[in-house]
Design goal:
mainly beta; four-stranded antiparallel beta sheet; 1 helix; 7 strands; 14% helix; globular
């Protein structure tokens, strides 16, 4: 599944999530599903925290976060 947001796109598979940011630097963030946390309550943030990974990114709205939660099967906190 691909979700477009104002800074790029989120690509979700059953095993990983990839964020591709638009711009000349072509930044890509990748994390296994086990390392993800979805933060709601208006924040609408995807946070990745693994043994060698730590990043977070804010989405445009709660619907995008809910779509990701439904696709990967984890709860929004």
């Amino acid at each position: 599944m691909v979700i477009d947001f104002k800074s790029g796109k989120v690509i979700v598979t059953p095993h990983e999530l990839v964020v591709k940011l638009v711009g000349e630097h072509m930044v890509t963030l990748q994390a296994q599903i086990d390392a993800l946390q979805l933060i709601g309550r208006g924040a609408n943030v995807i946070a990745a925290n693994g043994s060698e990974t730590k990043w977070s990114i804010k989405l445009d709205d709660e619907q995008q976060l809910k779509a990701i939660a439904n696709e990967i099967g984890i709860e929004i906190q």
